[in-house]
Each structure stands twice: as structure tokens, then as C-alpha cells.
Specification:
- Strands 3-2-1-4-5-6-7 form a seven-stranded parallel beta sheet, sandwiched between helices.
- The protein contains nine helices and seven strands.
- The model has no long low-confidence stretch (mean pLDDT 92).
- Helix 1 packs across helix 9, helix 3 packs parallel to helix 4 and helix 4 runs parallel beside helix 5.
- The protein folds into two domains: 205 residues, Rossmann fold, CATH 3.40.50.720; 41 residues, no CATH class.
- Helices cover 44% and strands 14% of the residues.
Length: 257
């Protein structure tokens, strides 16, 4: 690490969880290479080295990693955050092959491709990988069937990588959030509107009433900043023997162990 600078690559950094992660890591003095198909002013304001890139393409993740290597000399942390969403939401019968391929390509294959490209540098620097999963990997939710299956695959990938490369100094962990309060919930026609209509909740009352309606025992959604705080914790190496682990932050929505 030249001059002691740590370099992080964050995928899907344009909004929501990815944006919060980029912000938190720059505040922790990481040099952040932030990849996003859409580059927003908010992302540029984090101070990240922003790369406009389509991570759904076969060479997109590798080109993002190559930018980090060429510009900054190495990678200490890879955060696989970008994910595909099951569209249309509503259940198995509504999803054709293209919907399944889209979800798995952006959620799983982007992580495979980014990790493959970053691994030599991560091994050299004894770095770490953090995958952003979901409690839906274990919590069945038919309206998100493809996304849930893809997140389960991502979680398994993380455990396999941790097993294979842990002895060579690379830590791999997964953070699995429950519902996170981002603009996905407040956007017109999004899941917030769908649930609000189903549960008879006024759109203006979503933030106050939806947590209890979906079973969040804390009474509120997780914030993107809380996910980012866990990424910072895992990246710090303060618990260096944690690898192959899954950190769940779900507001108590999962009721069984």
C-alpha cells in the first residue's frame, strides 16, 4: 500500500446502500473507486474516484477493477453491492428466463467477475471482500423469488471463497440486511406503493406504519448508513479472524434461528 493508503472498490455505488458505503469508506480515509451505471452528484460529492460503468456486461466488473489497479496500484477491499431486481415483482409465474438471467447476472455474476479480477491484488495485500446479501436468501418472499434465490447464491459464494482463500490471508464476509429505507420505498410504483395499497396504508404514512406491518420488531427500517458502518467494521481488520460469516441486520424481521 503506497503511503499506507487503502483502496476500496464498491459496485453499485450510485444510490442507496452503495452510496452510503462509498461515503463511509472515504470518511475512513479509503481511496474509493465507485462503480455505477448512473453517476449522480451525490456520488461525486463523496470524493470517490467515480467510474461510469455497466456492471451487467461481461467485462464491466473487470474494467472497474482494472481502473483501480491502474490508477491506485492495488485493492485492499472489494464490496460487491450491485444487484438485480426481480421484475415484475409478484411471483414465480410472472418471471420469464430473461428476468431470471438479469437478476442472477447482476447479483451473482457481477460479484464473480469482480472478485476474479481483484483476487490477485487482494491476495497480495491480504485484503477482504464484503458481499451485500439479503435476509431473503433464507426468508422466502414469493414476490422477490429470483432476487432471493440470487442472494442465496451470493451468500454461498462468499462462504466458498472464505474457505478457499482464508488460509492465504483474504477474508470474505456477507452482510444480510432486511428492509432498508432507501428511495426504492418512496419512488412511485415501487414496492412501497405496492405494500401500502395491499395493507391499506396511506403513502405519506409509509415510514411510520410499514415497519410494524411487515414485522420489524425494532419499529423502523435499517438505514443505508448502518449497512455502511458494518462494511467499515469488516474492512478495519479489528476482528481479523472473522471470515465466512454472515452479519444480519434486519430489525428483527426474521423470527427464527
Amino acid at each position: 500500500m503506497a503511503g499506507g493508503t487503502r483502496v476500496a472498490v464498491v459496485t453499485g455505488a450510485g444510490r442507496g446502500i452503495g452510496l452510503a458505503i462509498a461515503q463511509a469508506l472515504t470518511e475512513e480515509r479509503f481511496t474509493v473507486v465507485a462503480g455505477s451505471r448512473t453517476v449522480t452528484d451525490a456520488l461525486r460529492d463523496t470524493g470517490s474516484d467515480v467510474v461510469a460503468i455497466d456492471l451487467a456486461t461481461p467485462d464491466g466488473p473487470a474494467r472497474l477493477v482494472r481502473h483501480a489497479l491502474d490508477r491506485h496500484g492495488g485493492i485492499d477491499l472489494l464490496v460487491n453491492n450491485v444487484a438485480g431486481t426481480s421484475k415484475p415483482a409478484g411471483g414465480f409465474d410472472l418471471l420469464d428466463d430473461d428476468a431470471w438471467f438479469h437478476t442472477f447476472n447482476l447479483t451473482v455474476m457481477s460479484a464473480v467477475r469482480a472478485t476474479r479480477a481483484a483476487l490477485p491484488s487482494l491476495l497480495d495485500r491480504r485484503g477482504s471482500v464484503v458481499n451485500i446479501g439479503s435476509v431473503n436468501a433464507k426468508l422466502a418472499q414469493p414476490r422477490l423469488v429470483a432476487q432471493s434465490a440470487a442472494k442465496a447464491a451470493l451468500s454461498n459464494l462468499g462462504k466458498s471463497l472464505a474457505e478457499e482463500f482464508g488460509g492465504r490471508g483474504v477474508r470474505v464476509n456477507t452482510i444480510s440486511p432486511g428492509p432498508v429505507w432507501t428511495d426504492v420505498w418512496t419512488s412511485p410504483g415501487g414496492p412501497g406503493d405496492v405494500l401500502a395499497e395491499r395493507l391499506g396504508i396511506a403513502r405519506a404514512d409509509l415510514a411510520a406504519e410499514l415497519p410494524a406491518a411487515v414485522g420489524l420488531s425494532t419499529g423502523r427500517f435499517t438505514t443505508p448508513q448502518e449497512i455502511a458502518a458494518l462494511v467499515v467494521f469488516l474492512a478495519s481488520g479489528r476482528v481479523a479472524n472473522m471470515s465466512g460469516s454472515e452479519l444480519v441486520i434486519d430489525g428483527g424481521i426474521v423470527k427464527t434461528v
